[in-house]
Amino acid sequence: MLSHRVYVGTIGEGLWRSTDNGASFTRASDGMFVECHVRALVVHPHHPRILYLGSEQGLFRSEDGASNWSRVESPLDGLQIWSLLLLPSNPDVILAGTCPARLFRSEDAGRTWTEATATMVQHCPRIMNTRVTTLVADPENPAGVWAGVEIDGIRRSRDGGRTWQALGQGLSSLDIHALAIVLNRCRPKRLLAATNNDMNLSTDDGATWKPLQVGRSLPWSYCRALAQPIGRQDVILLGNGSGPPGDAGSVVRSTDAGDTWEAARMPGRANSTLWNFAVHEADPDLIYASSVSGELYRSTDSGASWEKLAREFGEIRALAWTP
Predict the structure, then answer these.
(1) Which of the listed residues 110, 152, 219, 308 has the most CB atoms within 10 Å of its CB?
(2) Within 10 Å of residue 47's Cβ, how many Cβ atoms?
(3) Which residues lie across from 263 on neighbouring strands?
(4) Can you say whether residue 307 is alpha, beta or left, with left for phi > 0 and alpha for psi between -120 and 50 degrees?
């Protein structure tokens, strides 16, 4: 197994780091509130020691693998950041989604910012405030970006996140948790949207959606995290569970771009819904997963089977690994 680091973002305990392949963890929150709520964490695609972190205090950046953090002064100061994306085609472009749901954009690595043109519901009786739960780059279009909003559906940008269009006709729910995009030469582009009550599929670039009724074959209908092993487009991983947070969960895997799903081999049911995955191109077979209630899992075979790590946390909301 490739020597690597693991980063775990928690609620109320800040960020933790392992430098020994997940065997042990120490807190890595110098430069920010040590007990902050970490809900977003991304790694620079070309520099594995550069990380960006979103908390309830704003955006932070580390250039030394989380040994030290500094605040990125921006309109995000004091806002709850729920999602972050560095555009693969130009990592100096940073997109950030907040709660209440707003979208912000920098094209100079965080030195200056603008708020994107995006009309989104700000308040929702069920959860008080809506939030941008996921930001995904479109591999077919260097300027294409997708956003999922809980609870206000799906947005698409064709101009690198400057402006956004609402989509989502036919979705089983507007409670969007995660998005995935599947490209395959043998069939049209497929988009998957995980919601609170089903997995949804679009084959017309998001214009219309079809619920897949995964609850008929999976233990639960509640769908959370989505991930794709790097370079294996037809393989999709889903974090499934009994609810938010739920009291049981499992990793579910598709090897045919979402047509069929089956439970991965795990050492037992997780203690809650599987909330996060972490992948890296340095080793497509190595994947980490976490339950929202603090358990960590590792796969070395692209998600087909999993082992549970000894260390547990209180609540995990963000996860990454780097070489």
Answers:
(1) 152
(2) 12
(3) 252
(4) beta
Mean of all residue pLDDT scores within the chain:
96
Q: How far apart are the first and last CA of the chain?
A: 11
Domain assignments of the chain as residue spans, ordered by start:
81-308
Structure pTM? 0.97
Query: Got the DSSP string for 256-278?
Result: STTS--EEPB-SS-BSS-EEEEE
Name the residue among 55, 57, 9 with its Cα closest to residue 320.
Answer: 9
Quick one: DSSP state of residue 66?
A: T
Q: Report the C-alpha gap between 135 and 250 in whole angstroms.
A: 23
> Based on the number of CB atoms within 10 Å of its own CB, is 138 exposed (0-12), middle (13-18) or buried (19 or more)?
buried
pLDDT digits (tens, 9 = 90+) for 70-105: 999 999 999 999 999 999 999 999 999 999 999 999
Q: Which pLDDT tens digit goes with each residue over 106-120?
A: 999 999 999 999 999
Chain Cα centroid distance, residue 112: 24
Per-residue pLDDT tens digits for 17-76: 999 999 999 999 999 999 999 999 999 999 999 999 999 999 999 999 999 999 999 999
The answer to whether 225 touches 240, Cβ cutoff 8 Å, is no
- Three-state SS for 238? strand
Q: Are 276 and 264 in contact (CB under 8 A)?
A: no
User: Rounded to whole angstroms, how far apart are CA atoms 92 and 44?
Assistant: 9
Q: How far apart are CA 153 and CA 134, in angstroms?
A: 11
- How high is the pLDDT of residue 30? 97
Query: Pairing state of beta strands 262-263 and 274-278?
Result: unpaired
| Top-tier CATH class for 81-308 | mainly beta
Tokens (6 digits) for 256: 């045919």
How distant is the alpha carbon of residue 230 from its chain centre? 15
Which DSSP category does 47 fall into? -
Residue 186 pLDDT > 80, yes or no?
A: no
